[in-house]
């Protein structure tokens, strides 16, 4: 289980064209979850991007039902909701998390903690540091 945990970044456009976001993936409160440490105006850092659903003893190397956190109106602080219909799995040979969502398959590659924490020093995508 421990090998599946760590810091990961998207390989493609899961979060939007050209956006590089970072997740800290852990097994917490009985589910796998990806906490954003670099996010965007829709789902900023500190929010959970995905979490698994169902049986707590599932093998995470197999596709596991999950939900994705979304927010349609970035100005609405209370506008967060969960969208079901996703699946996630950890691919041990490639050391990547795979999210299947809305007909697409998206991979997240492991990065060193230092890279992720350095990225977190900047602003989320679409946000301005004052």
Give an overview in words.
The structure is a single chain. With 130 residues, the protein is mainly beta. The chain is 5% helix and 44% strand. The chain contains one helix and eight strands. An eight-stranded antiparallel barrel has the order 1-2-3-4-5-6-7-8. It is globular, with a radius of gyration of 14 Å. The mean pLDDT is 87.
Amount of beta strand: 35-45%
User: How large, in whole angstroms, is the Cα Rg?
Assistant: 14 Å
Shape: globular
Detail the poorly predicted runs: none
Helix share of residues? under 10%
Average pLDDT over all residues: 87
Major sheet attributes: 8 strands, antiparallel, barrel
Determine the oligomeric state from the structure.
Answer: single chain
User: How many helix segments?
Assistant: 1
Task: Give the strand order, joined by hyphens, for the main sheet.
Answer: 1-2-3-4-5-6-7-8
- End-to-end Cα distance, whole Å, is 40 Å
Judged by helices, strands and strand pairing, the structural class is mainly beta
Beta strand count: 8
Order of helices and strands: EEEEEEEEH
What is the topological layout?
Layout: E1 6-10, E2 22-28, E3 31-38, E4 48-52, E5 64-70, E6 81-91, E7 96-101, E8 104-111, H1 113-119
Antiparallel strand pairs: 1-2, 1-8, 2-3, 3-4, 4-5, 5-6, 6-7, 7-8
Please provide a brief summary of the model:
The protein is mainly β and 130 residues long.
Feature tags:
130 residues; mainly beta; eight-stranded antiparallel beta barrel; 44% strand; globular
